């Protein structure tokens, strides 16, 4: 009980500190705020020259604030990892309790406990939903959506879009197939493997920064990467590399969370 009270007190203090901190932020649209004074003007005037990207949004997200985007990707990965671990731990505890207390039998007037034969029980993963309309619609929609996601990734350095959008759309196809086909889905990735791949995606983002760092430049200074191409194409390659890492991280995080939820739901259905 005391730990719950302590947790509640800590949450109240943190929420109060957050609310107090926001009181010192400039109002939205304030013409005297720092971003509206010179930062935004500089980005607009020098974005294409500095980032080699004709799209200001892509240049800002992947270059000017590349650190921030890297941290967003890391938060995405850590969130998926935490959800997967929490669901796995709770499921393991429930399984241990179920094996011990779930089924009783009376033998000669006494109650004896026996483990549940889980192989005879089926849950949501073995009972996917679907039908001819949903199946045909998915077969038409998913291929085009995945092609569009690859286009968004490939053209992310020069047009609206990028890794977060591409990863979400790619994950959509895998989620639909998994929910409709269950264990028979063509693209089925175990939850642990999905989380590992998400971590590799986040690492690939950092690795892109290391390439320029090891070549004498600053972290995420794409123009200093050790590739024998022009400065303009180095920036394009650098943005594409970090977007590829973001795409893999986002896609596999969504898939990993889905697999953890399905596995959890499958166990609860057996109850």
Give a short synopsis of this structure:
With 271 residues, the protein is mainly alpha-helical.
Features:
globular, mainly alpha, two-stranded antiparallel ribbon, 2 strands, 271 residues
Topology:
Blueprint lengths: L1 H21 L11 H18 L4 H9 L1 H36 L1 E5 L2 E5 L17 H23 L8 H19 L9 H24 L16 H40 L1
Antiparallel strand pairs: 1-2
- Portion in helices: over 70%
Q: Which strand order spans the largest sheet, edge to edge or round the barrel?
A: 1-2
Major β-sheet profile: 2 strands, antiparallel
Round the mean pLDDT to the nearest integer and report it.
Answer: 78
Helix segment tally: 8
Order of helices and strands: HHHHEEHHHH
What structural class do you assign from the helix and strand content? mainly alpha
Point out poorly predicted stretches.
100-125
Rg is 25 Å
Approximate shape: globular
Proportion of β residues?
under 5%
Number of domains: 1
State the distance separating the first and last CA atoms. 29 Å
Count the strands?
2
């Amino acid at each position: 009980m005391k730990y719950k009270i302590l947790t509640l007190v800590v949450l109240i203090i943190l929420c109060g500190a957050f609310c107090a901190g926001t009181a010192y932020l400039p109002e939205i649209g304030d013409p005297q705020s720092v971003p509206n004074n010179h930062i935004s003007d500089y980005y607009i005037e020098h974005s294409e020259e500095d980032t080699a990207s004709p799209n200001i949004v892509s240049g800002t997200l992947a270059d000017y604030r590349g650190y921030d985007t890297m941290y967003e990707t890391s938060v995405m990965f850590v969130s998926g990892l935490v959800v997967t671990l929490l669901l796995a731990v709770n499921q393991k505890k429930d399984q241990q309790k179920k094996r011990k207390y779930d089924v009783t039998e009376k033998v000669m007037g006494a109650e004896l406990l026996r483990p549940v034969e889980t192989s005879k029980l089926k849950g949501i993963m073995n009972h996917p939903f679907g039908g001819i309309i949903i199946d045909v619609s998915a077969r038409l929609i998913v291929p085009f959506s995945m092609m569009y996601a690859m286009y968004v990734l490939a053209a992310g350095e020069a047009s609206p879009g990028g890794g977060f959008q591409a990863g979400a759309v790619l994950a959509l196809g895998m989620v639909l197939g998994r929910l409709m086909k269950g264990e028979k889905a063509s693209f089925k990735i175990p939850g642990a493997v999905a989380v590992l791949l998400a971590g590799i995606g986040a690492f690939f983002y950092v690795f892109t920064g290391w390439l320029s760092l090891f070549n004498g430049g600053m972290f995420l200074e794409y123009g200093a990467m050790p590739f024998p191409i022009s400065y303009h194409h180095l920036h394009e390659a650098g943005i594409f590399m970090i977007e590829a890492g973001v795409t893999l991280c986002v896609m596999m995080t969504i898939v990993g969370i889905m697999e953890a939820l399905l596995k959890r739901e499958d166990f609860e259905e057996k109850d």
